[in-house]
Amino acid sequence: MRRNFRKLAGSLADDRGYTLTEMLVVLAIIGLLVAVITPGILGQLGRARAKTGQMQLETVAAAVESFRSDVGRYPTAGETLTALTADPGDADGWTGPYVKNPKSLVDPWGHAIAYTVDPAGQNFTVTSYGADGAPGGAGLNKDLTAPQ
């Protein structure tokens, strides 16, 4: 009886745990899943940043329009977008700040939003140069502008 018990106990002890082969198979499956899923997730994150950037530019453009409504002109090229956060001094009627946080003037990729105003002061453009921070490009490096 004791011999059968020891034999049974010994066989149970041998069945515990996983073999090295089983562990390698599981790790290979996990690696394949990560390799297949990761590019899709990263692509989605990039597209989300681009959409966020476009919405942010529209918000900044609306703030520039509010500045114009109060002051009677767009911020000059010298004042840039900082005129939305701090009184430029020579802007009668300034009731800002027009953006709550200066970080609003930085695109989702960490680059400053570019501001251009035509020499006559009649039109303006706010631009994000995309993920690469350089003019031009395609895909995630595409330039975003507002107003459109």
Question: Can you offer a commentary on this structure?
Answer:
The protein is mainly alpha-helical and 148 residues long. It has one domain (2-146): Glycoprotein, Type 4 Pilin (2-Layer Sandwich), CATH 3.30.700.10. The protein is 44% helix and 8% strand. The protein has two helices and three strands. Strands 1-2-3 form a three-stranded antiparallel β-sheet, with helices on one face. Strand 1 (114-117) and strand 2 form a beta hairpin. The protein is elongated and about 100 Å long. The N and C termini lie far apart (88 Å). The mean pLDDT is 85.
The CATH topology label is Glycoprotein, Type 4 Pilin
Overall geometric form: elongated
**Cα distance spanning the termini:** 88 Å
Widest sheet, order of strands: 1-2-3
Order of helices and strands: HHEEE
Gross CATH architecture: 2-Layer Sandwich
Structural domain count:
1
Secondary structure class reads mainly alpha
| Oligomeric status | single chain
The portion of residues assigned to helices is 40-55%
Strand count, sense and barrel status of the largest sheet are:
3 strands, antiparallel
What share of the residues does DSSP label as strand, in percent? 5-15%
Total of helices: 2
Total strands: the figure is 3
Mean pLDDT: 85
The Cα radius of gyration reads 30 Å
According to CATH, the homologous superfamily is Glycoprotein, Type 4 Pilin
Uncertain segments are: none
